[in-house]
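Attaching the record inline, Q. Sequence:
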Amino acid sequence: MVKVKSMATQEIGLNEALAERGIAAWETDLAELIVQLGDDLPSHILVPAIHRNRDEIRDIFVESMGGAGKPAPEGLTNDPATLANASRLHLREKFLRAKVAVSGANFAVADSGTLVVVESEGNGRMCLTLPEVLVSVVGIEKIVPTWEDLDVFLQTLPRSSTGERMNPYTSTWSGVNEADGPQEVHVVLLDNGRTRALADEVGRQALRCIRCSACLNVCPVYERTGGKAYGSVYPGPIGAILNPLLKGVGVDEQTDSLPYASSLCGACYDVCPVAIDIPSVLVDLRSQVVDSHRGDGLDGYAAAMAGAGFSFGSATRWKLMTSASGWLAA
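Structure, as predicted:
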């Protein structure tokens, strides 16, 4: 099976589930391929292998591209063009043999049932045309009403993600075309916590995210820690709010720590093309995390705070308390 770069399928652990059933799912995006061959985790939304240098990538290719009767690339250097060509040769055989492809979608147009993938390498186009069966896993927040709405996002996404006026490849499909492409198409609309996020009056704005990664590129915390420190598919400021919203707070310690991975400087809000007020959502999620852990071994603390609240709530009680404390001090 070959795959177009898809954060939704990473989110649900599709590759791992397929591997348990003996199905090899090959990432075809160059950066995702590097991460996969290196048995690694992505560290950026747009450039998943940004934490790897050329020498490390060469070593990964030499070690992992051989096997199963296939020799490792000989004389491979750390030259970027040479590395890209090695990945091209490695993947071309996968494209030609695969009967099934899996994709996500950047957008889904409701009025025509059209799915849209934007990319920069052409690997997505290969996945969407060569295999006999195509399965597209799409988050329900990716749906836009009409082509006119799609036009706005196709202008916004490249500018915010790579600074380009438009991306090199835009692929659209609306089912089976008997003359070309897959002859069996399946669409899976993914919730996986999105309706939970939608129910959060403050946090629901995170569902507007178009995965441009602009917030990561300006975040001083992400700059210092890197994406792998977030322990999730979605790193950076958007990941710090999206993961708790999808999973729910109070579920695990790692997720509950994410709203605190911010200095609240507001740079992410300034660059967000869809105006997600990430700092406000972070503050709201922090209060939710605290509320979810009330009573978890903090009974003494809670009792002290309740006592303080009782004393401070009345001028008479406050005077009595200060008088008593003075008497005790004496």
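The first helix runs from residue 7 to 11. The beta strands are 2-3, 26-27, 100-103, 107-109, 114-119, 133-139, 143-144, 169-173, 184-190.

More tomorrow.
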